[in-house]
Amino acid sequence: MYTLLYMKQKRKHTVSQGKLNVNLTIIVVVMLFLVGITSPPSSQIQIWGWVCSLSLQLDVQEVSDQELTRFGNTLLEIQQMEVSAKNRIDETVQNSELSTETLNELFAMQSSNPEEIEDSFNKKEISEFNYVMVAINTIYVDTQKSMHEILKNHSYDLESFHQMAEVIQEDEQLLGRLQALFNEQG
Q1: What DSSP assignment string belongs to 141-153?
Q2: Nearest residue to 51 (alpha-carbon basis) of 1, 2, 10
Q3: Out of 14, 74, 109, 162, which residue is the most buried by the measure of CB atoms under 10 Å away?
Q4: Consecutive sets of 10 residues in the chain, 186 residues long: mean pLDDT of each?
């Protein structure tokens, strides 16, 4: 009974094999139920750990070189777009009539004590600050739209891209494969 309640609370582990999806939760529930009848709770925990590691190993093995390349190309495009956005923001700040120090002071004050801004800065400074903030916000919004477009062009949504990034980040073998693929291309 404990095993079944525990499994209801656990997240499903699905492994994709091409177009065939195998739901490991069903397998795990059956295995743990059978083991639970004859084994003490510590054995159930050991088996649960083994099944979880098995599912992670299956996930890693199922990531093809083509998928890693698609992910890597997507990541590179996003990084290039982020560098471009940062450069645009830097340029906006540098072209401002206000010093970086004044912009930082205004930003900090806007965050903590917005009512004191008019007492501490003149209207021209406040107007220039507002102009810079609108320009930065526009760059941010444009960057977000571009990022979603890049993801869409590579058949990702934000969630699936982040999931793939987490899988690669947590697995040294996958990260090594990704690096090797791009070293071969470069």
Answers
A1: HHHHHHHHHHHHH
A2: 10
A3: 74
A4: 30 32 30 36 43 43 87 95 96 95 94 92 95 96 96 95 93 92 79
